[in-house]
Design a protein that fits this description.
The protein has three helices and four strands. By secondary structure, the protein is of the alpha+beta class. Strands 2-3-1-4 form a four-stranded antiparallel β-sheet, covered by helices on one side. The protein is elongated and about 40 Å long.
């Protein structure tokens, strides 16, 4: 992804099946999480039980809060959240990122 489009923060959320529940996430809980993710405008395909967000720090953190709330309100007992800050990417006309000389040299 070009540096000027690179997200500042990414988040991966997974609705987890409660112990003793049937295999796979309850569909209504996952659907609620996906609706909340779609409303943020930051969502991307993440897999059968996963919701992915990418964007600015504030947008992603607010989106995570909305998704977790929606899943819990729909009856989810657990939502796994992984948030990752992205390092600065090289920009057009800017300096190369750290380690560039190690890869090329």
């Amino acid at each position: 992804m070009p540096g000027y489009e690179r997200a500042e923060l990414t988040a991966q959320l997974r609705v987890v099946t409660a112990p003793g529940a049937p295999e796979g996430p309850p569909q209504e809980q996952l659907a609620a999480a996906r609706r909340a993710a779609a409303e943020t405008g930051l969502a991307s395909e993440g897999g059968p039980e996963t919701v992915m967000l990418a964007g600015s720090r504030e947008e992603v953190l607010e989106g995570v809060r909305r998704i977790v709330k929606a899943a819990l309100d729909a009856g989810a007992r657990e939502v796994e959240v992984r948030v990752e800050a992205q390092p600065d990417a090289p920009r057009f006309g800017g300096k190369e990122g750290p380690g560039r000389e190690d890869r090329d040299g």
